[in-house]
Amino acid sequence: MKHALTVICFLFLALGLASAQQSDSSADSTATVRTGLATYYAKRFEGHHTTSGQRYRAKKFTAAHRSLPFGTVVTVTNLSNGKSVDVTVNDRGPFTRRFIIDVSAAAAKALGFYRHGQARVQITYMLKK
Fold first, then answer.
1. What are the domain boundaries of the chain?
2. Where on the phi/psi map is residue 96: left (φ > 0), alpha (ψ -120 to 50), or beta?
3. Which one of 6, 27, 29, 98 has the fewest CB atoms closer than 10 angstroms to its CB?
4. What is the Cα–Cα distance from 107 to 21, expressed in whole angstroms?
């Protein structure tokens, strides 16, 4: 009887792990990837309200995007050096088609392009349904 319970428990665990692995892999396949130029906020915006109502803080890992919902976490990767950070969208912009995202000063420093003004990046994000 103990052996039968052990086998049943093992089967339930195996089925649970298999379904969890399937859902994880399907979540990865829905990630959106874009490539383009990124820039960062100027110092003069420190403390100003963003479109979401939060104050811009240069030391936080935040970003502006033209259309992504506020609160979306975006992984930004600098294509020239491979450095990557996660930022949270809390503002609208950039307002020129040349750039796909504006990041905070802290994010630009972590990505290694703070003194350069711009960088070619890849952004990856998943929208919640």
1. 1-30, 31-125
2. beta
3. 29
4. 32
